């Protein structure tokens, strides 16, 4: 079955460390996205990519970085510059245009 | 800028009750509108969508009608079940320059629905 796979499901970060969250899709979608979800809030866009080797900042990109070297992969790095990284991170993909986005099951990041 | 406003939860209902979750939006042009559902510990699943005024999206007994005159997209279900307990998000697709779709979704804050047997 086609879908989006996020790993790991739970991730712990020490102070001053960078961590990378994986997102892989086999839906052959061009566009991919990273969102952050905090309790009681909606989803906020971190980065998105509409095509391989290109990506744009979303609303809360500071302290995060991404790459898009392959169509099916869009990893997110949470850097030590992100001072409040504890959140639920969701990856999504879409064909593009007005088409719906498909979501992975998320990665929950916590600080040790 | 574009925005989505949802009624605050939690919404607590008894099984077989009628459900309405209000959603209004602010946007330039004619965005597409979506309802997503999130079950505990999971990602979001598309529940239904509407792409133009007066369109009605429907799925699994849920319905929502794109009302341009009231800028609303309220979610309804005639008879809820315990298995419908989840967080529901209203969202719109943000338009880029010249009205083209940018693939960006703007979400409401979500409404928690709790259905009791």
Notes on the structure:
The complex is a heterodimer of chains A (112) and B (117). Chain A has no helices and 11 strands. In chain A, 37% of the residues are buried. The model of chain A has no long low-confidence stretch (mean pLDDT 92). At the A-B interface, strand 5, strand 9 and strand 10 of A face strand 6 and strand 11 of B.
In short:
The complex is a heterodimer of chains A (112) and B (117). In chain A, 0% of the residues lie in helices and 50% in strands.
List the helices and strands and how they pair.
The complex is a heterodimer of chains A (112) and B (117).
Chain A: E1 4-7, E2 10-13, E3 19-25, E4 31-37, E5 43-51, E6 54-57, E7 64-66, E8 76-78, E9 87-94, E10 102-103, E11 107-111
Parallel strand pairs in A: 2-11
Antiparallel strand pairs in A: 1-3, 3-8, 4-5, 4-9, 5-6, 7-8, 9-10, 9-11
Chain B: E1 3-6, E2 11-14, E3 19-21, E4 23-26, E5 33-38, E6 44-50, E7 56-59, E8 62-65, E9 75-77, E10 86-95, E11 101-107, E12 111-116
Q: What is the average of the pLDDT values of chain A?
A: 92
Q: Given the C-alpha coordinates, what overall shape of chain B results? A: globular
How many alpha or pi helices of chain B?
0
Computed CA radius of gyration of chain B, to the nearest angstrom: 14 Å
Strand content of chain B: over 45%
Order of helices and strands of chain A: EEEEEEEEEEE
Average pLDDT confidence of chain B is 91
Q: What's the count of strands of chain B? A: 12
The major β-sheet of chain B equals: 6 strands, mixed
State which percent range the strand residues of chain A make up.
Answer: over 45%
First and last CA, distance of chain A: 35 Å
Provide the succession of SSEs of chain B: EEEEEEEEEEEE
- Residue share in helices of chain B? under 10%
């Amino acid at each position: 079955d086609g879908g989006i796979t996020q790993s790991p499901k739970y991730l712990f970060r020490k102070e001053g460390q960078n961590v990378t969250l994986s997102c892989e899709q086999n839906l052959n979608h061009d566009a991919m996205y990273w969102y952050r979800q905090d309790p009681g809030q909606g989803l906020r866009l971190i980065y998105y990519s509409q095509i391989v080797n290109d990506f744009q900042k979303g609303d809360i990109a500071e302290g995060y970085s991404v790459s898009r070297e392959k169509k099916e992969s869009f990893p997110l790095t949470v850097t030590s510059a992100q001072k409040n990284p504890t959140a639920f991170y969701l990856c999504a993909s879409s064909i593009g245009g007005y088409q719906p986005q498909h979501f992975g099951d998320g990665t929950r990041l916590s600080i040790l | 800028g574009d925005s989505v406003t949802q009624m605050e939860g939690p919404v607590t209902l008894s099984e077989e009750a009628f459900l309405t979750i209000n959603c209004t939006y602010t946007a330039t042009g004619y965005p597409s509108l979506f309802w997503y559902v999130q079950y505990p510990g999971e990602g979001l699943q598309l529940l239904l969508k509407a792409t133009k005024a007066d369109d009605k999206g429907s799925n699994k007994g849920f319905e929502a009608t794109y009302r341009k005159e009231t800028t609303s997209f309220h979610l309804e279900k005639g008879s809820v079940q315990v298995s419908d307990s989840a967080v529901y998000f209203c969202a719109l697709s943000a338009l880029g320059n010249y009205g083209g779709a940018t693939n960006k979704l703007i979400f409401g804050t979500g409404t928690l629905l709790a259905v009791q047997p």
